[in-house]
Amino acid sequence: MKIIITGGAGFIGSHLTRKLLEENHEVYVIDCLHPYYSLERKKKQLQTIGFLRSDQFTSLDLLNREETISFFQSISPDAVIHLAALPGVAYSIEKPLEYVDYDIKATINVLEACGRSNAGQLIFASSSSVYGNQEGPLKEEMATGEVISPYAASKYSAESFCHVYRQLYGFDTKILRFFTVYGPWVRPDMAIGIFLKKLLKKQSITLFGEDRVRDFTYIDDIIDGIYLALTKLNFSEVINLGSGNPISMLSLLNELKWYFPEIDMRKEHSRAGDVVQTWADISKAEKLLGYRPKVSFRMGLSETVKWANEHEAFL
Ligand SMILES: NC(=O)c1ccc[n+]([C@@H]2O[C@H](COP(=O)([O-])OP(=O)(O)OC[C@H]3O[C@@H](n4cnc5c(N)ncnc54)[C@H](O)[C@@H]3O)[C@@H](O)[C@H]2O)c1
User: Fold this and answer.
1) What is the pLDDT of residues 46-63, one digit of tens each?
2) Model pTM greater than 0.90?
3) Does the beta carbon of 67 lie inside 6 Å of ligand 1?
4) Which among 17, 18, 147, 304 is least buried, having the fewest CB atoms inside 10 angstroms?
């Protein structure tokens, strides 16, 4: 398949690009190397992909509508996997308008470009945050738009635009809602990334909301889910990709104590925008995709700690 991946230099995008190349797809990566986190880190993530011809990476900001459309037309992709976005709940509260740009407007440009280049399908990276503050297990139909952060509002809105452009142009839209992804190259602004950096430096860590619960999902399982949606599903759907195994922040710290017995921790109240709990109902992914998360939290964390030890300079 000829596939465009947006955000291919990011955490999930670099793992996905590597997988698609291994499966012998013709892959074209777009990324503007946004400075949300370090440029060095994004360049290194690109290197981990392995061999990518120079014409397979394009530095392009998707906010540039005309360039985006003409790039897509020059490729005529069979599929587009749209991962590019400004992530992060906390920063979205500081800079909500940037999320309207990077998470909504850029998505509209990608959708228009899919339509005008006759792409067969679009996979959109959405998020568990669209469920707002509800008790799990969270089923796909439970998202109502009643969310608690600008990031979540932008993702929910971008999902609506996917429905609009499916109607306008007729390509399949596969909206995948990822639940807290971790693993080697975990994003440096996420709890596991922040904790590992501090623990390796023997600094104290701050736990915001010890009662918070997250459905931590290992990167390889997310990549499997995206690949199954790309290759096995031939209609539009909204599907959760999670582990279905919620873990409290306190349990995360207890697991980390196996590797860092002397954790110095400060507890704080949870931060605005953070939901109390995420817990994916993955029965739709199991039924439609044959998706089965394979990596236990203990095993995934062990791989992540091993990676952090070997790449401390990039944390
Ligand atoms: N990591 C998670 O736990 C998680 C959970 C739910 C949803 N998601 C979603 O999955 C996607 C990938 O997340 P990630 O963790 O890999 O984030 P990331 O920040 O590592 O990757 C996103 C990439 O998109 C690029 N980008 C941003 N705006 C762009 C633009 N206008 N033009 C071109 N490139 C642009 C960035 O430079 C970055 O490399 C995002 O849409 C995110 O919202 C991630």
Assistant:
1) 999 998 999 999 999 999
2) yes
3) no
4) 18
